[in-house]
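Allow me, if you will, to draw on your knowledge of protein folds for a short while. I have a record of one protein: its chain in single-letter code and its fold written as C-alpha cells. I should value your view on which stretches of the chain appear to form regular backbone elements. Thank you for your consideration; the sequence and its C-alpha cells are set out here:
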Amino acid sequence: MKKLNAIGLDVAKSKTLAEKLSALLANYSIFYQNTRGYHWNIRGEKFFELHLKFEELYNDLLLKIDEVAERILTLGHSPNHRYSDYKNISLIKESSQVSDGTKAVEDIINSFQVIITLQRELLELSADAGDEGTNALMSDYIRAQEKMVWMYSAFLNKK
C-alpha cells in the first residue's frame, strides 16, 4: 500500500510536486522583484499607465507567491525562502534597472512564458497524483496569465 500524506496524496508524488512548486516559487519571486523594479524605475511617455499596471502585477505576484508557498506546506513540505537559492533555481533572471516601458513589458511577457510553462508541467504532475488542489490553482493561474500575456502583447502591438 502507498504511503499517504495528511491530505491523502502519495508521499513520493507529493514530494515531486513540492519540488516543482519550489521551482515555481523561485521564479515567481524573481519575477516579483523584477516587476517592482520596473514600477520604481519606469520613465517616459507611458509612465502613468505602466507605473499602475506594474503595481497591479507585482501585487498579484505577491499573492501567488504566498499561495504557492502555502501549497508546498499543504503537501507536507517546507517552502524555500532564500533569494540566494531563488537566483540559482529560477529560469527568470534578475533584470537590470529597466526604465524603458517597452523593454519592461517584453521582459514581463518572457517571464510569463516561463511561469506558464512551469504551471503546465505542474498540471500534469498534479493530475497524475490526484492532487486537485494544486491542479485547480495552476489552472486558474494559467487562464488569467494567458489573458495578461495577450493584453501586454497588445500593448506592444504584437500578435
Remarks:
- DSSP finds five helices and no strands in the chain.
- The two ends are 51 Å apart (CA to CA).
- The longest helix spans residues 11-41.
- The mean pLDDT is 96.
